[in-house]
Amino acid sequence: xxxxxxxEFGGPDVxxxxxxxxxxxxxxxxxxxxxxxxxxxxxxxxxxxxxxxAHPTELPSGxxxxxxxxxxxxxxxxxxVEVGEHVFGEGASTYAEFAVLxxxxxxxxxxxxxEAAGYPSVVETALRIIREVGVRPGQTLLVSGASGGVGSAxxxxxxxxxxxxxxxxxxxxxxxxxxLGAVATTYGEGWVERVRELGHVDAALDLxxxxxxxELVGLTGDPQKVVSIxxxxxxxxxxxxxxxxxxxxxxxxxxxxxxxRGKLHIPVEKSYxxxxxxxxxxxxxxxxxxxxxxxxx
Length: 297
What we know:
The protein is an alpha/beta fold. The protein has helices spanning 41-48, 113-117, 120-133, 149-160, 174-179, 191-198, 213-220, 248-260, 277-286; strands at residues 2-6, 16-19, 30-39, 61-62, 66-74, 86-92, 98-106, 140-144, 164-169, 183-186, 203-206, 226-228, 240-241, 268-273, 292-296. Helix 5 links the parallel strand 9 and strand 10 (183-186). Helix 3 crosses helix 8 (248-260). GO terms for molecular function: oxidoreductase activity. Homotetramer.
């Protein structure tokens, strides 16, 4: 089979599309014929060799955590899913023709494989950081870097839970944030003052890692009311860095429910072929994403 992998840490150019042995489902796992794989910032952070405790890496390594596809192997002890079913979930080395998943859910009706691949990690992350930051119904959450996959999920989940959201993004994504129920404003010079003019902020999330932790603490008044998923230096300022996943099966079940009820939709901004995985990483690192990027197999 074909698989994207890297033999050394580095830039996008270390990614290679190569022949590899097919993986097989172990106990509690399934294997899928991959149709699409989600492109997440954690993918290129791992490729660069960043020290992410939740994702130890042995070289050579495959790439990717999220996938959608057709079940073609069911491991020992697995019940409730059969060969031939369409699922989306989380596993390892998903930029490949076949991948093993350790958590999955059936794809909601009407969802394409490309769309489904963009949900697993981002919804788990969104649910986790909303919980960790402690924001409650009736309060206001500030989301810095709100137009990407996690931001898109946070805005919609917050709206379902009765939480008001202020989102920052580039000028081109202001209408997109408003369409998801957020009060939108641009980042850049003067952004703190623009946020203050919009009202009191009870909690804040840093999704972009653009060096705004001090300002978010100032806006909330308390480093305990700020969580970052993108700035590894956040703990130096007393802010929690969230990088360890909670229950992925629970998150997938909630994602499937929200999607089925029309409460959650994350658009796919761009799709890439397996051979173009490096370009997908370049674009992901550049930011300014509206929704999700996926690799199509």
